[in-house]
Write a structure and sequence with these properties.
2 domains, globular, five-stranded mixed sheet, two-stranded antiparallel ribbon, Heat Shock Protein 90
């Protein structure tokens, strides 16, 4: 995976960036001046290259999860991580009218950057797969043996139980392309982060009834 990350960052992104740049130049300079379906075809090239750039970026993120050693683990405040995640997606939250609430969240031993990314991905997932109502998301945590059990509950479109495991796979997106800008990597990254922290992640949902994503993180050892 580390070798792939190097190849992707150096050998794949540069030629793709050139395709994207020149396709955008064509679109800007010759829009409405070419015959037939030229404008539509150029638009497909621009859209496809931009989607591929996002996909490569997410693949790099996925491949790098395990590259951060345990030196990055520290005693951290999950409430602060949630606030950072909410700040990062504030534009999406405002545009969708999402309401995000939370109970009291604990301190854990973890990688603050990755825990924030975990929270952020789960929030974005709930906002993207919303129904006609504005998204409502509630985040909570409770003790569960030697772990903390976190829950992200939303009022979205829900998930057919038969896909409850499939959605955590790479490139697994249940909605058709164009419905949202996702590429099926967000929940795969969530699972990898949780696994790195020696936890588990799963979803409880049904179509039309929202979804609740659960994951566990070990409680810090007493000092």
């Amino acid at each position: 995976m580390q070798q792939f990350a190097y190849v992707a960052s150096h050998d794949l992104q540069e030629p793709l960036r050139n395709v994207s740049i020149y396709a955008q130049l064509l679109a800007k300079r010759y829009q409405g001046r070419l015959e037939g379906d030229a404008d539509q075809y150029i638009g497909y090239i621009v859209e496809g290259s931009q989607r591929m750039e996002r996909l490569i970026h997410d693949l790099l993120d996925f491949s790098r999860v395990d590259s951060r050693g345990t030196d990055f683990f520290t005693r951290m405040n999950c409430q602060a991580a949630l606030e950072d995640a909410m700040f990062n997606i504030r534009t999406l939250t405002e545009e969708s009218g999402a309401e995000i609430t939370s109970g009291s969240l604990p301190w854990v031993l973890g990688d603050p950057v990755q825990i924030t990314r975990l929270f952020q991905n789960l929030l974005v997932n709930s906002i993207k797969y919303r129904d006609t109502e504005a998204p409502r998301i509630h985040v909570a945590a409770q003790e569960d043996g030697n772990d903390w059990l976190f829950s992200f509950r939303d009022n979205g479109i829900g998930i057919d139980p038969q896909y409850a495991e499939k959605i955590f796979g790479i490139f697994k997106c249940l909605q058709p392309r164009g419905r949202n800008s996702g590429n099926g990597m967000g929940l795969a990254i969530c699972r990898k982060i949780v696994t790195r922290h020696e936890g588990r992640i799963w979803v409880d949902s049904a179509l039309g009834q929202g979804a609740t994503f659960y994951f566990t993180l070990p409680q810090p050892s007493p000092r």
